[in-house]
Amino acid sequence: MIRVLLVEQTRLVRGAFAALLSREDDIEVVAEADGNGDVVARALGCRPDVAVIGVDSREGEEVAVRGELRARLPECRMLLMMASTTPERLRRLLDLHAAGVISSNAPPDRLVHGVRKLVRGQRFVDPEFALAALDAGANPLTPREVEVLRLTAEGTPTREIAERLCLSAATVRNHLSAITRKTGGRSRIDAVRIATESGWV
């Protein structure tokens, strides 16, 4: 039997997913959680093969407490469910040791298929998300430029950005000029919009 821990904040949605998975002869939902800080503890208690975690409410319990689940229970693989994503967010979640990502709007059999693939040691990325990532242009920004742009998007003044990133104000301004040029924006605000819509930040 494939042992599944199901984590979803909304009880009605969680119940629907539990019923769906429990219909399968080879899958057993051994525990459920609402994602209020108890994911790692519940997983250690029931030792599932797969943790199916709803991401949108609490960013997948910060992807199972930033790797703690994987470190303490390496045999448990994480399948993250979300309504939508961007290519950049998808890469970030996969980099945080998620073994799979699925749309919460996917057909029911896709969730079952994803769980089974993870148990076989494979990765699973929802085809809709994979196509969106392929269609998106490559991110032209460097990691440092992404950091600067994220702080700019939050309304952080240039001098404060410089202090937080241990840069000079002139270097921050240079980064912002490069960001505006690379994104094709007319201004910093336009650059933030373009980068956000493209999934680069």
UniProtKB/TrEMBL annotation:
Molecular function GO terms recorded: DNA binding
Presence of the UniProt keyword DNA-binding in the record: yes
GO biological process terms held by the UniProt record: phosphorelay signal transduction system; regulation of DNA-templated transcription
Species annotation: Streptomyces paradoxus
Keyword set, alphabetical order: DNA-binding
Name recorded for this polypeptide: Two-component system response regulator DesR
Source domain of life: Bacteria
Residues annotated as domain Response regulatory: 3-119
Keyword Oxidoreductase part of the UniProt annotation: no
Pfam families per the UniProt record, alphabetical: GerE
InterPro entries (alphabetical): CheY-like_superfamily (IPR011006), Sig_transdc_resp-reg_C-effctor (IPR016032), Sig_transdc_resp-reg_receiver (IPR001789), Tscrpt_reg_LuxR_C (IPR000792), WalR-like (IPR039420)
CDD domains (UniProt xref): LuxR_C_like
Domain HTH luxR-type: 134-199
